[in-house]
Amino acid sequence: PESVEKGLVTLVLTIVELLRQLMERQAIRRVEHGDLSDEQIERIGTTLMLLEERMAELREHFDLTPEDLNIDLGPL
């Protein structure tokens, strides 16, 4: 049961990390294209930093490393 729980937590956090990375890449593209106001850039940056911090806390809580959540999808 414990290994099933850890496997499920790893899967869920891997998906969340994937989504975080995709959102970060999309935000970077939008900034580079000039699609965002300064206020929007600030809000997105703050949100992404907070999400990254929370992910680090969750990895630590569940004794996972960033490599445990790594899925290499190549360039997206």
UniProtKB/TrEMBL annotation:
Keywords noted in UniProt: Gas vesicle
Any GO BP: gas vesicle organization
InterPro entries: GvpK
One Pfam family named in its UniProt record: GvpK
Compartment(s) where it occurs, according to its Swiss-Prot or TrEMBL record: Gas vesicle
Region forming the signal peptide: none
GO cellular component: gas vesicle
UniProt keyword annotation of tRNA processing present: no
PANTHER family: PROTEIN GVPK 1 (PTHR40137)
Family as reported in the entry's similarity comment: Belongs to the gas vesicle GvpK family.
Name of the protein this chain belongs to: Putative gas vesicle protein
